[in-house]
Amino acid sequence: MHHDHSARPILFDVQHVTKSYRMGELDVVALNDVSLSIRQSELLVILGASGSGKSTLLNILGGLDVPTSGTVHYRQQDLTNAGDAELTEFRRRSVGFVFQFYNIIPSLTAFENVKLVTDLVDAPMDPRQALELVGLADRMGHFPSQMSGGEQQRVAIARAIAKRPDVLLCDEPTGALDFETGVKVLEVIDMVHRELDATVALITHNASIADMADRVLRMRSGSIVEEYSPPVRKQPRELSW
Predict the structure, then answer these.
(1) Cα torsion for 95, 103, 197, 195, to the nearest 10°?
(2) Global pTM value
(3) Which residue, of 29, 69, 173, 183, has the fewest CB within 10 Å?
(4) Which fold is adopted by the domain 41-66+83-238?
(5) pLDDT digits (tens, 9 = 90+) for 62-80
């Protein structure tokens, strides 16, 4: 069943964003006049091949990067003119990141990896609760080397959600995983989206994943070339690739 997200407040408002990088003699355009809005509590999938600009867009939404021109507002906050300190605070307070490679610390247990983040914010989730949510209640004392890739990715998700972020940004979260494990990770993301009412933006080159979204943006060569809502929102279990 589809929730009507058009009634929800706009969380991100992106207007005419361009991002170019200087590479030697060349200017490489990563984003070319991109405009979009993301509404509170929606699950947005951004599809595109490598080099389409989707990671650049995600990094700009997450305050890891700033556009060359155009504006990005998060609620009432103008991220385009924010200084480093303000962007750091925005990332710390509002955003949970999940990357393709899990970025968890090998010398710390699952519990310690999550606790590291909860020490930074005002009203965190108990690390145990976050790990229970992602189905790792029995793995809290394990080190990354004692866990499968899918379990490590679930630790990364627990770490991201433990600070109760308003928005969860996932960059190819199943990119390093086989199908079966990938589906489990998507189930966790879907569950976090529902249980915590988080806004989720997930980027992937895998078109099948789009079927679990409220809304899909397709990118090519730094532009959004298509936007649609899947007629039926599938459960991750029902996906295949």
Answers:
(1) -160
(2) 0.89
(3) 69
(4) Rossmann fold (3.40.50)
(5) 999 999 999 999 998 999 9
